[in-house]
Amino acid sequence: MDFIQHTTNWVKGEIFEATIFGAFGLLTIICSLLFWKFGETPNSKAVIIPFAVVGLFFLVTAVSGIISNNKRLEEYNEAYQKSKAEFVISEKKRVEDFQYLYKMTIIIAAVCFAIAVCFFLFTNNHILRSIGLAMIIFGLTGLIIDYFSKERADDYYKVITAQIEKNHIFEN
Q: Exposure pattern of 17-31 as b/e (b: 16+ CB <10 Å)?
């Protein structure tokens, strides 16, 4: 398989993830609307805004990811045709440069979970607990998405390093 095909598969995987992320965002917004329409208890009324905010964030992030990754497909093909060696090196750097995000996701999720637990342990406030639930959804979704993204990134990075070794590409 030509290297650009691996890159295309990577980008298509990112688009798929963004689509799943967007679908989950839409589902969260729908849940918020259902709580608004049919919720009668203070807890069900309190989750409306936190769920809507998280769902909207997921949806906007997903649409942005889909649009930017579709643009990347064309740009990557052009860059690859222009200079295969430079493209492979640039991909290696790009993949290395975003690895810290996976650790950040774990930290953000842990903070979200800790705050949510505190809201449930130390208060009976419906709004704070609802915000805590939204934070749990936010953190858990980030972990799920990055769980699969990191796996694909690791696999892609192995292909990149194999390509560099195979073609004796020298990095500057």
A: bbebbbebbeebbeb
One-letter amino acid identity for 153? A
Q: How far apart are CA 99 and CA 155, in angstroms?
A: 13
Average pLDDT over residues 10-17: 95
Give the model's pLDDT for residue 170.
65
Please state whether the predicted TM-score (pTM) of the whole model is above 0.90: no
